[in-house]
Sequence to fold (367 residues):
Amino acid sequence: METRAPYALIGAFVLAAILAVFGFVYWLNNTGGVGPRTSYHVQFQGPVPGLLVGAGVLFNGIRVGEVTQLDLAPDNPRFVNATIAVASTTPVRADTRVGLDFQGLTGVPVVTLEGGMIVARSGEPLTLIAEAGAGQSMTQAARDALRRVDTVLEDNSGPLKDTIANLKTFSDGLARNTGKIDGILAGLEKMTGGGTPAQKVTYDLRTPKDLGPPGKTLSASLAIPEPTAVAMLQSQRMLFAPSGDNPGFADFLWADSIPKLLQARLIDSFENYDIAHAPLRTTDLGQADYQLLIDIRRFRIAMEGETRVEIGLSARIVDKTGKVVASRLVEASEKLDKVEPAAAVAAFDAAFARIARELIGWTVQAV
Fold:
């Protein structure tokens, strides 16, 4: 028995499938499906290269419709009239700005709409006027800019030629007098103290080791913050009183600024006395029971009368509430027979050793 194929049913199914595909593509292309649309008239005051019917319309970067018609303005052939259809919910206003943008590597043109606050009167046809030059592509803008540059160069060809000739004359003069210029620059470098800087020599303050057996230890936690000092003392240079030029110390540097150096060596001295109960920096310990506050009064070489090194400190012990438990002035000096870095550092070491012993003995008695 012969089976008859339902050709009409198959044809109808194929046609429905084709229509469904076209409908789906149309819906994707317009991002708004087949919903209600509103048409607007747009006028471009210049050429619109590459713009075609069906090109997209973007509002604040979001696709809302497409171009439905393009015509030349009958009253002015330089103008282009376009009709766009956008989703009815698009907030197009009478002052909405219209432009032309070129997207992607191929520069596909789309109509762009942005902003707007003035609502058009009901019933009046809304015409949007594009900004002047809205259809100008980046290529055309570059051509116009190069054309203007070429015009400027052409109008000033004479002065430019003279300037180049003067530069050549100047460079030839420099080439002929290279030796003299090198000599002038070398003289200026010597006069201003330039050239290769001399290597600085760094000196450290020695921590005393022989502090004797600890007769008494700290009974509470103690912190030693960085000592305070006037700006002059916050230096790595050797200080003199009165201040003056001391060539032998031109390349002298302490290992750190004087306050930081004294803080480190005082902590080292407490550790050499009793490592088990030695204080720490405030940042290391947090909230200590007591703090040893040091203010630096003197740390210098005194040149008046007998030459000597001087160290003068003001020490205070305060508790957690900020109450001063004890205070003391600690001073030491050491005779300096020869004003030169190595002898000066040795004198500072001896003076600091006496300072450290006195501060440690006083602190362990007070805390």
Notes: Residues 201-366 form a domain with the Rossmann fold fold (CATH 3.40.50.10610).
